[in-house]
Design goal:
With 164 residues, this protein is mainly alpha-helical. The protein has one domain. Helix content is 76%, strand content 0%. It has helices at residues 2-35, 44-65, 74-78, 81-113, 127-130, 132-158. The longest helix has 34 residues, at 2-35. It is elongated. The two termini are 23 Å apart. Keywords: Cell inner membrane, Cell membrane, Membrane, Transmembrane, Transmembrane helix, Transport. It is found in: Cell inner membrane. It is a multi-pass membrane protein. This is TRAP-type C4-dicarboxylate transport system, small permease component.
Length: 164
């Protein structure tokens, strides 16, 4: 199971990097087109926006998995043993719930905007921009479940000496 999750994380990281490269390329192209007469790149802004959004959401999921996300460690640093495990479990359950909301609401929003198109690129559906929500929501859930299992296993392994 760990190999599958590692593969998902690796794929998500690679895709985030690709979206970053596309974003940078589009921004450079857009800026350059302002100074080169006769070249109009109407689509660059839209693709840059979509790429940036997808990059940020994929990056957020990877950050969650690597436990590098924003957190208040005041309470985590003071707790040990079972109280720490309970707090860690509560945190992971909240993250699972948040992922669930991203999946369900993101799916509904994607469906709602699927028929809408972008003015600068009529062939591009707005639903694609919202599709990132259910996709990253699924990975939020996977990574939070992985972390929850790791916390429980760490507690069992270290018993009373368990710490974050």
């Amino acid at each position: 199971m760990k190999k599958v999750i590692n593969g998902i994380a690796k794929a998500q990281l690679v895709l985030a990097a690709i979206f970053f490269i596309v974003f940078i390329f589009c921004v450079i192209l857009q800026v350059a087109s302002r100074y080169i007469p006769g070249i109009a790149v109407f689509w660059a802004s839209t693709i840059a926006t979509y790429s940036f959004i997808w990059m940020v959401f994929f990056g957020a999921a990877i950050t969650l998995r690597d436990k590098e996300h924003f957190k208040l460690s005041i309470l985590l640093d003071k707790l040990r043993g079972l109280p720490l495990l309970v707090l860690q479990m509560i945190i992971q359950v909240i993250l699972i719930w948040f992922g669930y909301v991203m999946v369900t609401d993101g799916y509904q929003i994607s469906q709602q905007f699927w028929g809408w198109t972008v003015n600068s690129m009529p062939q591009l559906k707005q639903g694609y921009i919202w599709l990132v929500l259910p996709i990253t929501g699924i990975t939020f859930i996977i990574y939070a479940l992985e972390s929850l299992i790791e916390e429980i296993l760490n507690y069992r392994k270290h018993k009373g000496g368990y710490q974050a």
